[in-house]
Amino acid sequence: MRVLITGAAGFIGSTLAHRLLDRGDVVLGYDNLNDYYDVRLKEARLARLSVRERFDFVQASLEDRPALEAAFAAFNPERVVNLAAQAGVRYSLENPRAYIDANIVGFLNVLECCRHRGVEHLVYASSSSVYGANRKLPFAVEDSVDHPVSLYAASKKANELMAHTYSHLFGLPTTGLRFFTVYGPWGRPDMALFLFTRKILAGEPIDVFNYGKHTRDFTYIDDIVEGVIRTLDRVPGPDPNFDPLMPTPASSLAPYRVYNIGNHQPVQLGRYIELIEQALGKSAIKNLLPLQPGDVPDTAADVSALMRDTGYQPSTSVDVGVERFVRWYREFYQV
User: Is pTM, for the whole model, over 0.85?
Assistant: First the structure.
């Protein structure tokens, strides 16, 4: 297949591109290489892709409508995976406009390009953040998600609504994936695993929010990518079981689906830190703090729908995943 991946220099996007290339697909990567985190890491991911056959790259933003339209016109993708976005819950409190530009305006541009180019299937990144103030665990795609606690979460919920509109009006098949705390080699420096590893090795204290008591459904990168590919290969149609009198947010009479994609085995942050310490052979200096604004106390994914429809089955335990990350980190940064 000809697959366009936005956010291809990112953590999930670059890993996905390698997997698609491995199986023989043709991939166009699209990324603006912004400086939200260390651009050198993005460039290193991209350098590994640039030597691959059947891979090309365009550097531009989703908000740059002419550039995005030109990329679609030149490449003519059959399927699209939209992973480009302004990421981060906490940064959305500091720079809210970045989330509207990239996640709302940018996503509209993606939808328009997919519509006018006859794309067979758009898979896009949503987030577990959409569950916001919900407290029923595990989070299920059938649950209401109308109480976001950050603008980042609101922008991801908006993406789902926008996608449904295009599925309904124009018959564009769309699938949204609510990612749950992705981690692993080549990960993001703003995420806990990366931050903790760097600071523990440097002998610096780590900030442990909610006193280490909150839980996260940490999901290993290979399991995430496996789920993305299984979803990409399964083009949704109208749900024959959809009941307009008792509607579910997870499907529709339009070719539209939303899935959770997680490990469905939540781990307490304190335990996660213990696993990092074990892998590093070094203890952390902990600065215990209350929960931050915009954060939620717990996440847990009900992935039964994704398992049912695609055969998705996460297989990497958190102790194995953390050890693999630490090994990569030491090698990449020569620590």
Answer: yes
